[in-house]
Amino acid sequence: MVQLIDGKTISKQIKDELKEQVAELSAKGVKICLAVIQVGNDPASSVYVGNKKKACAYIGIDSLSYELPEETTEKELLELIDKLNKDDAVNGILVQLPVPKHIDEDKIIKAISPLKDVDGFHPMSVGALSIGQPGFVSCTPAGVIQLLKRSGIEIAGKECVVIGRSNIVGKPMAMLLLRENGTVTICHSKTKDLKEVCKRADILVVAIGRPKMIDASYIKEGATVIDVGIHRDENNKLCGDVDFESASKVAGAITPVPGGVGPMTIAMLMHNCVDSINIK
Ligand code: NDP
């Protein structure tokens, strides 16, 4: 029978471990503080920001909340980031993306100090990951590695195929699998024979942003399938990039949507906040 990789339980385990670490740090007088900035009031962003603040409260991390109006200028946002970069009481800075169109997202990402870049999006963080140096790692792919490790799935020596090459999921995912000694192939929209490449995978990570695209015909018997996608289907039910019904008939292990990769992203953000005391 297919093994269900349970992101809800694993993310709770991680948050509970972090809660203990934060309590120990607090007993030594070390406080951890995350500054969360949201510009505008996009409802999806408000839900994400709310969940991040809730997770901070659960673990014992202080959170500073900046809810800025939609018309905030790029200059004003950069000034706030600069102030928070210089504030020794702030360990992590997170700007909820996307920002309104009149603000240059790249400029904002680069303005956050790499020492406080808990999202792991700064070019310095990405570079550190590529050359195996300490730095913050993008939360969703870091969460996938935890799902695999904590579910007893060996990565070293395995054929790993990642579908998707975005800066926040696909590319860092491939780097992390490589760091774990997987043999890694990255696929994208120009890949020829996608099915054949996917069928080589012992571990298939799917981050394409296309609802239920990957069915059993892409999957080798017994492979591990990690579904990063999140969508609403025609019945308004959550689904992933993988057709779970079909894929779970051939996969050896698989993440559900919801309850797979999704809850891991916030858990790893919390991990990065705690880890900020080690990144210098
Ligand atoms: P992007 O849209 O940035 O990237 C999608 C990637 O998939 C691109 O590299 C694209 O290739 C590739 N792709 C698209 N169509 C095909 C195709 N037909 N065949 C092969 N490759 C294809 O998406 P993200 O990486 O940001 O996100 C991927 C999914 O993960 C989304 O569903 C998103 O909602 C979800 N997500 C979930 C998170 C979570 O916490 N669970 C966090 C972040 C994202 P090309 O580069 O050639 O265009």
UniProtKB/TrEMBL annotation:
Stated family: Belongs to the tetrahydrofolate dehydrogenase/cyclohydrolase family.
Taxonomic source organism: Coprococcus hominis
UniProt protein name: Bifunctional protein FolD
PROSITE patterns: THF_DHG_CYH_1, THF_DHG_CYH_2
GO biological process, one term: methionine biosynthetic process
Keyword vocabulary terms for this entry: Amino-acid biosynthesis, Histidine biosynthesis, Hydrolase, Methionine biosynthesis, Multifunctional enzyme, NADP, One-carbon metabolism, Oxidoreductase, Purine biosynthesis
Positions that bind NADP(+): 164-166, 230
PANTHER family per record: C-1-TETRAHYDROFOLATE SYNTHASE, CYTOPLASMIC, C-1-TETRAHYDROFOLATE SYNTHASE, CYTOPLASMIC-RELATED
InterPro entries registered for this protein in UniProt: Aminoacid_DH-like_N_sf, NAD(P)-bd_dom_sf, THF_DH/CycHdrlase, THF_DH/CycHdrlase_cat_dom, THF_DH/CycHdrlase_CS, THF_DH/CycHdrlase_NAD-bd_dom
GO molecular function, one term: methylenetetrahydrofolate dehydrogenase (NADP+) activity
GO CC list: cytosol
Domain (Tetrahydrofolate dehydrogenase/cyclohydrolase NAD(P)-binding): residue spans on this chain: 138-277
SUPFAM superfamilies, alphabetized: Aminoacid dehydrogenase-like, N-terminal domain, NAD(P)-binding Rossmann-fold domains
A Pfam family recorded for this sequence: THF_DHG_CYH
Catalysis: reaction(s): (6R)-5,10-methenyltetrahydrofolate + H2O = (6R)-10-formyltetrahydrofolate + H(+); (6R)-5,10-methylene-5,6,7,8-tetrahydrofolate + NADP(+) = (6R)-5,10-methenyltetrahydrofolate + NADPH
Domain Tetrahydrofolate dehydrogenase/cyclohydrolase catalytic: 5-119
Subunit and interaction comment: Homodimer.
Pathway per the UniProt entry: One-carbon metabolism; tetrahydrofolate interconversion
UniProt function note: Catalyzes the oxidation of 5,10-methylenetetrahydrofolate to 5,10-methenyltetrahydrofolate and then the hydrolysis of 5,10-methenyltetrahydrofolate to 10-formyltetrahydrofolate.
KW Oxidoreductase (keyword) present: yes
Membrane-crossing segments per the record: none
E.C. numbers: 1.5.1.5, 3.5.4.9
